[in-house]
Design a protein that fits this description.
Elements (H helix, E strand, L loop, with lengths): L2 H15 L4 H9 L3 H13 L3 H12 L8 H12 L4 H12 L8 H13 L3 H13 L7 H13 L3 H13 L7 H13 L3 H12 L2
């Protein structure tokens, strides 16, 4: 190899060895370059960045990495959750609920869902609301269910919007309020909920 070619090869090797930033890793993942994404997420995770830890965990959960495992995913989710990363907290709850961390444990799953909800995660709010609604992992408590469904509804979850409307309509867990029931049915209907559209039609026909 002559000198110019050797220099070019060395420069290429140096370029490939350069760190991948977290934004570059996110872009690489969106573009389907899983190898580059994994490199960037791993570097970010090792620096202690919660978002990198979360994304590396999710690549393990989705089996998008060589040697991916639930155990490795759990490890990185725990580290991200220690920094109050709400998506990681919710993912830990889902792993426990799905039995991906031993026997399903509804109470432990709901504990993580509640932490996620308290840190602003809409999926966590929906999940902890359902824990209270069904009495699974939490005592059945319709007032608590309504409160958390309302949080999920405000975050844009259509199913929660319909449930909040229904609970306002029937007075389940909250004082009945037909005005608020109609409001939430309208929100859900605008977001494509067919049942909410039917409810609005029925309400119009009854007036």
């Amino acid at each position: 190899m002559n000198k110019p070619l050797l220099i070019s090869a060395l420069l290429l090797a140096a370029s490939l060895a350069q760190a991948v930033t977290l934004p570059q890793a996110l872009a690489a993942y969106d573009e389907g370059d899983l190898k580059l994404a994994a490199k960037g997420f791993a570097e970010s995770a090792k620096r202690g960045e919660a978002l990198g830890q979360f994304n590396l965990a999710m690549m393990n959960l989705r089996r998008e990495l060589p040697g991916a495992s639930d155990a490795t995913a759990w490890q990185w989710l725990q580290r991200a959750a220690a920094q109050q990363h709400a998506l990681a907290e919710n993912a830990l709850g889902e792993m426990i609920e799905q039995g991906r961390r031993g026997k399903p444990n509804p109470k432990a799953a709901c504990d993580w869902f509640e932490r996620a909800a308290e840190h602003g995660n809409g999926d966590g709010a929906l999940a902890i609301a359902t824990c209270h609604y069904l009495g699974r992992g939490r005592p059945q408590d319709m007032a608590a269910a309504h409160r958390w469904y309302l949080e999920a509804a405000n975050s844009g979850d259509v199913g929660a919007q319909y449930l909040v409307a229904s609970m306002f309509e029937t007075g389940l867990g909250v004082e009945a309020d037909q005005r608020l029931a109609r409001y939430w049915y309208e929100v859900a209907a605008k977001n494509g909920d067919v049942a909410a559209q039917g409810k609005l039609k029925a309400m119009d026909e009854s007036t």
